[in-house]
Amino acid sequence: MRPGPGLGAIQRVLVVDDSRLQRRILVGSLKKWGFEVSEADNGETAMDICRASRPDLVLSDWMMPGMNGLEFCRAFRDLPGDSYGYFILLTSKSEKNEVAQGLDAGADDFLTKPVNSDELRARISAGARILDMQRELSDKNRMISETLDRLQDAYDTIDKDLIQAKKIQESLVPELSRSFGSSRVSLLLKPCGHIGGDLVGMFSPGGNRVGFYSVDVSGHGITSAMVTARLGGYLSSSYFDQNLGIDWRPDGAHDLRPPDKVAALLNERFLADSGIDEYFTMAYAVADLDSGKVTMTQAGHPHPLLLRATGECEFLGQGGVPVGLLSGVPYEQFEVTMKRGDRLLLYSDGFTECRLADGEMLEQEGLTTLIGTCSAAQGGQEFLDDLFWSLSQKMSPDYGMEDDVSATLFEYMGP
């Protein structure tokens, strides 16, 4: 016979009482209701039974020789394991301080002797509801714990892959500073996560010309990083046969393509690739190291900043359309002639759109102010590192680094 409705959580009951008559009365009622019943006449024997197989419900007398009901209840609660047993103390005590002692010892409920059968069944039913909730909660907690373990394993795998992906992305920028004659190109690349969607680079097939760029792919994370990997091949500083910035002639000679042609080629390539929804902004420049003439194209990227040796600053370009958005877009180019000591800064919007402590963005004016805080004697990589450090000091602690920060600095020192 199974326990009645509402009592399914309680199957096994332990009755502990030094009175044989009292045990017989309780055991008879419990077996009639369909419970599996064990009995003990003292606390020590009861603990042996509980260690062997913990009951769902304990009915224990308070006053017993040797280990009394309170001591037995404390020992029962100290048993190892996750399963919970409902504990009812049988007592003639009704004073509030004595009830408090029982609760402190771990008792869940009390019944006054002599025990009324209907009241006993009602108290057991209440205990069954509590055990149902407790076991349901334990099952859910176990499921949550197992799910969290699986998520942690997945996170560890992804984190490991991202660390490796970061190394691969860093390989796209093999050197952060390189001299071309007396001039120099320096690079800064600071992703806001393991990997990012910004890319900077430089290359020269020889002679007196050098190409350099700053790219910002839409979005963040893995997808953007994969696009930068493709761009790294299209603008490779190591494999010129793949570089769209280099124009190879039939006789084997080569030169740097005009920036507007490079932007147009990249636009065609990206629109031809099915499954790629990302686009990117770009500032791309070709510098003549003899004359100081720099030819640039701006494709939706922040305006290049010309820093004259005299201390003057000038933002260049008209904006343009990002690469990979529309087919047949004409890309315009413009020129500027640099003098000895002039610098040209290409940078991503991670600078100008950085949130400051007041919640506002840095903007162009803030960028020029930030540059003014950097030592005029600094150059190359040292200048870019100092610029990024100054930016990090102004970042809002509430927003932090929300976007990748990157820059390319060209320093012209004459022929």
Condensed summary:
By secondary structure, the protein is an alpha+beta fold. It is built from 10 helices and 18 strands. It has 2 domains: about 10-140, Response regulator (Rossmann fold), CATH 3.40.50; about 170-410, 4-Layer Sandwich (Phosphatase 2c, domain 1), CATH 3.60.40.10.
Query: How many strands, what sense, and barrel or not for the largest sheet?
Result: 6 strands, antiparallel
CATH-derived topology of the largest domain? Phosphatase 2c, domain 1
| Overall morphology | rod-shaped
Please list the strands of the largest sheet in the order they lie side by side.
6-7-18-17-14-15
Structural class based on helices, strands and sheet pairing: alpha+beta
- Strand-residue proportion: 15-25%
CATH architecture of the largest domain: 4-Layer Sandwich
- The residue-averaged pLDDT reads 88
Helix content range of the residues, please? 25-40%
What multimeric state do the chains show?
Answer: single chain
Number of domains: 2
What is the CATH homology-level superfamily of the largest domain?
PPM-type phosphatase domain
Q: Strand tally, please? A: 18
End-to-end Cα distance: 102 Å
CA radius of gyration is 39 Å
Low-confidence stretches: none
CATH class descriptor name of the largest domain: Alpha Beta
Give, in order, the helices and strands: EHEHEHEHEHEEEEHEEHEEEEEEHHHE
Number of helical segments with 4 or more residues: 10
